[in-house]
Write a structure and sequence with these properties.
It contains four helices and two strands; from the N terminus they run H-H-H-E-E-H. By secondary structure, the chain is mostly helical. The protein is globular and about 35 Å long. The chain binds a DNA duplex through helix 3. This is GcrA cell cycle regulator.
DNA sequence: CCCTGATTCGC
DNA sequence: GCGAATCAGG
């Protein structure tokens, strides 16, 4: 399973969303949590670093008014609205657009259902790939390296 | 024991 | 670059 742009986007998003490596791995499918963590490190977003650029220090953004843009654009034109991490609303799609460490970085910003971090379009991207396996009840750890206990008889 | 991420290391 | 094995912690 190769790390396609889409999969990487999902990875970055879910990771920044706070999901654990095993959760992400299970969602993507075809990869283990080790692979996810390895990729995460390789991407340089370990430690749950903020997706936003390493802003040294915002000169005290007064913006006391959480005026979010209630945009309703088509998925095809997403990217038009430059929702930054500071302008994103709670019920707006938080799908990352562009490099997290770039000025171009912003969020989709489309209307998202309450509780859902993404709009329908990106939600499908993130949740569509595989939906069969959600259960975590069966943690893949049957390993149980049989103890080589042998009697020295 | 279950889990978590972090790092190493052979591929 | 990739991910399993391993490490280190909760």
């Amino acid at each position: 399973m190769a790390w396609t742009e889409e999969r990487v986007e999902v990875l970055k998003t879910l990771w920044s969303e706070g999901l654990s490596a095993s959760q992400i791995a299970g969602r993507l499918g075809g990869v283990t949590r080790n692979a996810v963590i390895g990729k995460v490190h390789r991407l340089g977003l370990s430690g749950r670093a903020a997706p936003a650029a390493p802003k040294p220090m915002a000169p005290k953004e007064p913006a006391p008014e959480p005026k979010v843009r209630t945009v309703s654009m088509d998925p095809a034109t997403f990217g038009e609205g430059r929702m930054t991490v500071s302008t994103i609303g709670t019920n707006q799609c938080k799908w990352p657009i562009g490099d997290p460490a770039s000025e171009e970085f912003h969020f989709c910003g489309q209307g998202a259902a309450s509780g859902k971090p993404y709009c329908a379009y990106h939600s499908s991207l993130a949740f569509q790939p595989n939906s069969a396996r959600r259960e975590r009840v069966r943690t893949k750890a049957p390993a149980a390296i049989a103890a080589p206990k042998r009697a020295y008889n």
